[in-house]
Amino acid sequence: MDTQQFDFVVIGGGIFGCYAASYLSKKGAKIALLEKESRLFRKASLVNQARLHSGYHYPRSLATAALSDEHKERFTNEHRQFVHSSFEKYYAIDRFGSFTDPLQFERFCSRIHIPFKRINEHALFNFNRLEALYLTEEHSFDPVLLSRYYSEMVENDPNIEVFLDVQLQNALPDGVNWRIEFTRNSTLPSPSPSSRLVAPTVINATYAATNAVNTMFGVDRLALTHELSEIAFVVSREFGDRGLTVMDGPFGSIMPYGLSGLLSLSSVAYTHHKISYDDLPQFDCQVAEDPSCRPAAPGICTDCPRRPMSNAAKMLAQMRQYFSESVQFEHLFSYYTIKSKLKSSYIDDGRPTEISMLRQSPRFYCLFSGKINSIYEVEKIV
Ligand SMILES: Cc1cc2nc3c(=O)[nH]c(=O)nc-3n(C[C@H](O)[C@H](O)[C@H](O)COP(=O)(O)OP(=O)(O)OC[C@H]3O[C@@H](n4cnc5c(N)ncnc54)[C@H](O)[C@@H]3O)c2cc1C
Fold first, then answer.
1. Burial of 101 from C-beta contacts in 10 A (0-12 / 13-18 / 19+)
2. Fewest C-beta in 10 Å: which of 94, 136, 191, 225?
3. What is the pLDDT of residues 202-226, one digit of tens each?
4. How far is the CA of 370 from the centre of ligand 1 (A)?
């Protein structure tokens, strides 16, 4: 068996794995980037609401709100060509059942110094349902353009070797190094011969598969829950290229999906089709005959014939209540993926990015991400 030596093995080719690999490459390290699928960026880094968080979303978690703002400026500056910053973004509070009220929301925004302007009249919105409407400053990143940018960056970097279609077989400490064995391409009738990598440091950036990889390396698992989630894509001639997020509780959001001209639609009640409270994402749509998706190695939900029926009609019915009757939306298609959260986020709805060193020698970092613009957190630790 061929053995290749690297300084770092990064497992997971979403934005966090790609960013970590390219950051380490700039420091002169040799990196192996391992991805389970045949392409990079097919999961959470592609299928999300594309909200470049300014903090408005987290009135119950000051820490997450402040962290959003901490990285927003740098993320925007370094990804300017992939950020849509010229649309009107509204936040609103539902008259019924919200965890926040106008006074609290305004105090919260002032406390973390994010701008807001209360709007008392607007032809597009239904003030019978909205207790308060605010014009805010929040942008949207373009996941498709980011995917192309980061994929090309790591694939063309001479310090980074990208391995696709990887199936991890085992990982063992061997002195100061990890010895990692994997096969390629699960769709071949007979498994490919094993490959072996050796490196003193591993970074696990596999998001929904975090605990499966931690288990293989013999380190602690994180307490996670997983939601099989749908992001619906809609267009509206009347609403155009604007965004509305209704706060704070079981409401929803419609906003530009980057620069694509589409609006992403999601709702707390209908976006999440199934919930798994297990440490691994375990869903009844995973079947033994399809090895491409298992709790230990989840697949690409959008491409799966057993993905749930779309809830877009229900999401639209819920969101329609906040708009004037003249505003219409058309659903075009939906993407699906697994959204994973720390169990500790249940109370405050926070989305921290947690990077922990779970073994010192050989070294193992677990990078569990909460939001796209916290990619820079890796620089503080590794
Ligand atoms: C529905 C939804 C909406 C969201 N909305 C927003 C938002 O509006 N704004 C925001 O900032 N954030 C949002 N997020 C969060 C954000 O998308 C994630 O924090 C971020 O994309 C995670 O990036 P990642 O690289 O860690 O994970 P991923 O992009 O999921 O990448 C992990 C990669 O690891 C690979 N992998 C898994 N197992 C293995 C293995 N055994 N071997 C090799 N590779 C493996 C996977 O195939 C995948 O490519 C949202 C997330 C979801 C799901």
1. middle
2. 191
3. 999 999 999 999 999 999 999 999 9
4. 9
CA of 286 to the centre of ligand 1 (A): 19
Q: Classify domain 3-381 by CATH number.
A: 3.50.50.60
Question: Nearest residue CA, atom 12 of ligand 1?
Answer: 371
User: H/E element holding 104?
Assistant: helix 102-111
Q: What are the tens digits of pLDDT across the range 250-283?
A: 899 999 999 999 999 999 999 999 999 999 999 9
The dihedrals phi and psi of 46, each to the nearest 5 degrees, come to -105, -40
Residues with CB under 6 A from ligand 1: 11-17, 34-37, 42-45, 47-51, 53, 166, 168, 205-209, 213, 229, 231, 297, 337, 339, 369-373
pTM: 0.95
Q: Render pLDDT for 148-177 as a digit per residue (tens, 0 to 9).
A: 999 999 999 999 999 999 999 999 999 999
Distance CA 110, CA 291 (A): 50
| Nearest residue to 310 (alpha-carbon basis) of 226, 251, 231, 227 | 231
- d(CA 381, CA 207) in angstroms, rounded, equals 18
- Looking at residue 349, what is its pLDDT? 66
| Ligand 1 centroid – CA 20 distance (Å) | 14
Which of 17, 29, 277, 38 shows the shortest CA–CA distance to 150? 17
Annotated domain spans of the chain: 3-381
Report the alpha-carbon distance of residue 315 to residue 341 in Å, rounded: 22
